Design the sequence.
């Protein structure tokens, strides 16, 4: 059974189910429960996250809906939507009020910039009355802050100043404190136009905390002054440097008496207007934390402001040393060079950086880069460029030491190199200090001149930490040469996901492994070995690679991929790149058509970069990128474009957010559109991300579920079908879960999947029938497993087995197929496939479909055999002989009797599953129970899928009944009967109850009364039909094709929300009936139902039929329903649908129909005046039926439809087109 990933608490919004719908699109299994679900029930489901839905009530009203408050103690992420957001804000102490005007419709979402430099920084103001509560923390921070910068003070003086700081803190009205989850980072305090105190914890210096505090103080407290004043000890060069960078200027120096001494104090002043402009302009720039720190200097990223210093240094040939550049170092070239350095650090975790003193003076460059070291090898090189005035100081050595340490401990390099000019004695001397012996010579080319260099190498004396990354199911370790045999076996004998260069690796396997080992030793990257933790079995390769970017690479067995191991491996490697390697970005480079790889990358938070790289005529790589953000704020809105459209629908708003929450986004009318408490992992949105009108809403829900909650993404319709069939078997037949398979299924997952979900299951889709015919021919003389492993490649190569396309293949196409290594390359078999496509089309032309022809041999009913062992199953039968001969007579090739019997097994014409197999058709075991299921069939997609699902589960215990209500469209009854007989092979019972329905509807005009009458009559007819079948066994269940949009529109929630409309097959059965209701599709949307139908092998033309309401044409006639009006409406509707098909528009709209308005108007036909009826034509586009927009059909098309209706249907003289969307309207008129 499926494990709940996200649990939605429903507060009564008509959009609630859309939340689950959106998340299911991403494979996240989501369930919905009422808002009052008990905490014990929620704990039992053990979800990874909770969503509080929208709702109609107001949180401040008496009796407002409230969930169990214990959900906030579960320590799992929670997301509130609309009412859910208002409840969260209200519960945690925020303020929710009635909005001045209801906000309904589209709004523009403005995301509050999520700057990496602001991660987790919270600014809190304290009134002086609260000082006793924070005094101890503030003084401890002050003491920690001045340990380095106040080293000129004696201990007794230090204590005296501490008392002065205490007094200042106590006397100032406001103290502003910066903090994050772990620490107090700094504080600021002042009075009027004087900044008294500003101290930052050493741990958070150079992170922009001081500027942030100052900016906050200026915005909130320093008003109506021209200047801001402060002071600083003259010997505190670090503090003076900070203030000077902000634009403060020294105005004088005076002495500060402390006990018996005097210390010089510098008084500084800044123009407040300039200071505000500077802080705002630089608020999120040049404030990044240092990469490396030492007592006297820091190493940070290079910035644009450093270019002038660098250009000046390059003018001194002595200073340049080994540095040369192959382009003119002036703008824009200088900026280009800077971009390269910044990109290198961002992509690979190393590059060239700036060297800076603690008081902010730029003194040079230092860093790591990839360098040729001779013998066609590369390694990590350490290098520096220091201003001349700092030669002879400790700065060059300290900078190089930090870089070497970083290479060893962060990048796991065993060796670090330096390529130095032969005449650069200073650099060579420094190499010797670091005990780097010369290991070779190379030439570097500068300005078309080759300059000899010596290569020096430092070998780490530290014992290298073995690579060991552990996930839930796997272990990643460094490759060793002894792995060659298991790698070879892996590539040769396993089905693999992700290996596009398998042949190249196998050709030089040992050399390839040695190269990957060197990559790890030299760069800390490369391919590593993956082992299944439970089986201690080698299952693939994974790692980081430096190409144009840093790339996460995974090659894994198909079995492990199907178990979602790739997700946890990619997550672990991403963490290694960000946390261990220090990268700012990682990339996934996928084939553009590799859906599995692209989906995996996106599930990790990667977003499209719109960069593609052509690799031949039909191959392209797509680059997907994820930026490292430790701030959970950015995870919720990761990849969401600025100013996207969202859908608002609320009458209340959050006026004040609770303490501990931050604002994530706003709109023009709603200040708090999205908020979060990062510590508690609680998020909230005022808009509806679940509706299609919110253009990035699905991505936001995905971000919450996958990136924040860590939800699994493996749920799909295959699992739904398996679970639902098992549940139906247990409910109706009393079957317990059987796990046995036919012996031939083996342990290969691809074989087991084929056995469980395809083999022996009735198949009627034309393309899939042609596919199986071709593949059975391709198999001749080979293992079926070989064909299965190449199936996707075959589909790609043969245009998804479209017989119309295959029939047109020429010699050039045949030659291309013969060069395709991914398929079975047999010239005769390929030519036979083309021939068979032509013959296939001929059969379609003669019989209407190949399905009708082939299933006619068994009269549309599968043959159920009862074999005990695999030896009992024949290779061919007299029937396969007959079909084979007929196909050969028609010109088909590779259709021998053995191949045809295998074909019959594969498409479900025969069920040869062993009696002990869990997949044995239930038709064979009907005698197990006398309980039957009466299934209501309308001929639409929903009821057809229900009938197919039930037939798959319980076989002939199903009694499918089709009721002709007299309210059907033209030809509907005949089409439904033919469809069930010819396409599904499901026996259908038709009941003509048209006179009963029309009789009960006589004189009725109210739409709700019509629906109620139709629903009650429907049940009465079924009960009467049930009594007829009691001789076959007691009917205990009634099955219906109810979908969630039907249910949600029939639910009445206390409060402003009302029942929108009732549905004839919703709400259970009257008390006097004895049937138990079965609604297997009750939690699905229309597109999910179609996907389920495809999984069950139903033909596409059945699945793409437009929805048709249970009450039929009765709710498309305004007023009383009678036979004359029904015939009139049928004629109009038939013309409209016919024209949609004719113009290839039928599949482009969600639903299309006509409505008879029973409104007459004056018209002119020929020379005569008319006074006839008006027909309304309606077509809508939708994804799920919960919301819809009218279809923008071409005017010329509508004009043609109107002309045909008026000319061909007597009694109609006017046609109108409905351009109302849902909401505010509904799709149907009644």
Sequence:
């Amino acid at each position: 059974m499926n494990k709940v990933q996200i649990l939605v608490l429903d507060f009564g919004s008509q959009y609630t189910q859309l939340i689950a719908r959106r998340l299911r699109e991403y494979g996240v299994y989501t369930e919905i429960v009422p808002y009052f679900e008990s905490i014990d029930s929620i704990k039992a489901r053990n979800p990874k996250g909770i969503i509080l839905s929208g709702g109609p009530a107001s949180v401040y009203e008496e009796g407002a809906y409230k969930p169990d408050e214990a959900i906030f103690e579960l320590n799992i992420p929670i997301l509130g939507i609309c009412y859910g957001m208002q409840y969260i804000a209200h519960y945690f102490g925020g303020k929710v009020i009635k909005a001045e005007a209801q906000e309904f419709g589209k709004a523009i979402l403005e995301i509050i910039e999520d700057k990496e430099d602001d991660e987790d920084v919270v600014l809190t103001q304290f009134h002086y009355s609260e000082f006793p509560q924070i005094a101890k923390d503030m003084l401890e921070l002050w003491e920690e802050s001045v340990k380095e910068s106040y080293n000129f003070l004696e201990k007794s003086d230090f204590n005296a100043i501490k008392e002065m700081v205490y007094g200042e803190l106590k006397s100032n009205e406001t103290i502003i404190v910066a903090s994050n989850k772990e620490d107090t980072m700094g504080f600021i305090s002042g009075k009027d136009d004087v900044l008294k105190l500003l101290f930052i914890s050493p741990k958070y210096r150079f992170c922009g905390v001081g500027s942030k505090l100052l900016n906050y103080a200026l915005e909130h407290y320093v008003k109506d002054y021209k200047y801001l004043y402060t002071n600083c000890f003259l010997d505190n060069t670090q503090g003076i440097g900070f203030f000077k960078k902000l634009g403060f200027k020294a105005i004088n120096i005076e002495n500060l008496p402390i006990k018996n001494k005097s210390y010089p104090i510098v008084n500084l002043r800044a123009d407040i207007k300039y200071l505000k402009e500077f802080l705002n302009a630089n608020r999120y720039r040049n404030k990044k934390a240092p990469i490396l720190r030492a007592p006297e200097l820091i190493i940070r990223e290079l910035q644009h402001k450093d270019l002038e210093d660098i250009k000046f240094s390059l003018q001194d040939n002595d200073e340049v040393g080994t540095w040369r550049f192959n382009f003119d170092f002036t703008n824009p070239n200088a900026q280009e060079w800077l971009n390269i350095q910044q990109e290198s650090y961002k992509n690979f975790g190393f590059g060239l950086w700036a060297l800076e003193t603690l008081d902010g003076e730029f003194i040079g460059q230092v860093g790591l880069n990839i360098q040729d070291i001779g013998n066609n090898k590369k390694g990590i090189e350490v290098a520096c460029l220091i201003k001349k005035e700092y030669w002879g100081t400790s700065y060059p050595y300290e900078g190089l030491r930090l870089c070497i340490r970083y290479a060893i401990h962060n990048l796991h390099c065993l060796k670090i190199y330096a390529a130095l000019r032969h005449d650069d004695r200073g650099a060579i001397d420094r190499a010797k200090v670091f005990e780097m012996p010369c290991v070779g010579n190379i030439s570097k080319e500068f300005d078309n001149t080759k300059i000899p260099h010596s290569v020096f190498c430092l070998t780490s004396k530290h014992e290298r930490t073995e690579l060991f990354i552990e996930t839930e199911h796997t272990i990643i370790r460094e490759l060793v040469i002894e792995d060659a045999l298991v790698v070879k076996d892996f590539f040769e004998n396993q089905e693999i996901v992700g290996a596009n260069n398998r042949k190249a690796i196998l050709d030089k396997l040992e050399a390839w492994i040695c190269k990957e080992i060197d990559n790890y030793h030299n760069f800390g990257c490369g391919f590593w070995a993956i082992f299944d933790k439970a089986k201690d079995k080698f299952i693939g390769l994974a790692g980081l690679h430096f190409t144009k970017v840093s790339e996460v690479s995974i090659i894994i067995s198909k079995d492990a991929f199907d178990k979602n191991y790739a997700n946890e491996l990619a997550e672990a490697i991403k963490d290694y790149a960000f946390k261990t390697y220090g990268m700012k970005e990682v990339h996934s480079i996928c084939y553009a058509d590799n859906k599995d790889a692209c989906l995996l990358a996106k599930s990790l938070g990667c977003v499209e970069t719109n960069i593609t790289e052509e690799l031949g005529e039909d191959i392209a790589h797509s680059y997907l990128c994820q930026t490292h953000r430790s701030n959970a704020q950015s995870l919720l809105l990761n990849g969401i474009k600025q100013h996207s459209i969202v859908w608002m629908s609320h009458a209340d708003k959050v006026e004040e957010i609770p303490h501990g929450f931050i604002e994530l986004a706003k709109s023009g009318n709603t200040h708090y559109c999205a908020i979060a408490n990062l510590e508690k992992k609680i998020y909230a949105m005022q808009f509806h991300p679940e509706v299609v009108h919110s253009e990035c809403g699905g991505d936001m829900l995905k971000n919450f579920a996958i990136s924040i909650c860590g939800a699994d993404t493996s749920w799909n319709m295959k699992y739904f079908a398996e679970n639902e069939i098992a549940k139906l078997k247990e409910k109706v037949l009393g079957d317990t879960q059987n796990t046995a398979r036919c012996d031939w299924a083996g342990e290969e997952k691809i074989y087991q999947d084929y056995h469980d979900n395809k083999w022996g299951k009735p198949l009627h889709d034309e393309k899939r029938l042609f596919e199986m015919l071709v593949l059975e021919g391709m198999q001749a003389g080979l293992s079926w497993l070989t064909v299965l492993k190449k199936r996707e490649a075959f589909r790609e190569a043969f245009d998804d087995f479209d017989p119309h396309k295959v029939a047109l293949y020429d010699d050039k196409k045949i030659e291309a197929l013969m060069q395709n290594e991914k398929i079975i390359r047999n010239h005769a078999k390929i030519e036979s496939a083309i021939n068979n496509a032509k013959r296939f089309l001929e059969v379609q032309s003669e019989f209407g479909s190949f399905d009708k022809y082939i299933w006619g041999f068994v009269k549309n009913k599968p043959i159920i055999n009862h074999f005990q062992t695999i030896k009992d199953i024949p290779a061919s039968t007299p029937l396969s002989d007959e079909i084979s001969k007929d196909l050969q007579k028609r010109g088909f090739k590779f259709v021998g009797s053995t191949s045809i019997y295998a074909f019959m097994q594969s498409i479900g014409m025969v069920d040869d599953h062993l009696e002990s197999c869990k997949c044995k058709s239930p038709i064979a075991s009907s005698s197990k129970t006398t309980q039957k299921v009466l299934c209501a069939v309308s001929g639409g997609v929903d009821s057809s899928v229900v009938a197919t699902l039930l037939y798959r589960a319980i076989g002939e215990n199903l009694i499918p009944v089709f009721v002709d209500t007299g309210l059907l469209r033209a030809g509907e009854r005949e089409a439904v009967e033919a469809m069930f007989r010819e396409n599904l092979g499901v026996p259908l019972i038709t009941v003509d109850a048209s006179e009963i329905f029309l009789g009960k509807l006589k004189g009725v005009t109210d739409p709700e009364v019509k629906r109620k009458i139709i629903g009650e009559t429907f049940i009465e007819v079924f009960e009467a039909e049930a009594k007829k079948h009691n001789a076959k066994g007691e009917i205990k269940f009634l099955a219906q094709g109810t979908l969630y949009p039907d249910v949600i529109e029939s639910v009445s929630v206390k409060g402003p929300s009302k029942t929108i409309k009732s549905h004839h097959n919703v709400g259970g059965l009257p008390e006097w009936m004895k049937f138990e209701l079965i609604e297997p599709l009750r939690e699905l949307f229309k597109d999910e139902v179609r996907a389920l139908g495809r999984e069950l092998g139903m033909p596409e033309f059945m699945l793409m039929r437009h929805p048709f309401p249970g009450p039929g044409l009765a709710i498309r006639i305004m007023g009383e329903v009678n036979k004359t009006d029904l015939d009139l409406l049928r004629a109009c509707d038939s013309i409209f649908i016919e024209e949609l098909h004719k113009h290839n528009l039928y599949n482009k709209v969600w639903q299309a129909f006509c409505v008879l308005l029973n409104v007459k108007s004056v018209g002119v036909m020929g020379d005569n005046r008319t006074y006839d009826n008006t027909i309304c034509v309606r077509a809508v586009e939708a994804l799920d039926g919960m919301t819809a927009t009218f279809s923008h059909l071409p005017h010329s098309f509508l004009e043609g439809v109107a002309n045909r209706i008026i000319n061909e249907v007597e009694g109609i003289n006017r046609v109108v087109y409905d351009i109302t969307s849902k909401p505010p309207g509904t799709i149907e008129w009644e």
Q: What stands out?
A: The two ends are 39 Å apart (CA to CA). Residues 932-1104 form a domain with the Rossmann fold fold (CATH 3.40.50.620). The mean pLDDT is 80. The longest strand covers residues 95-111.
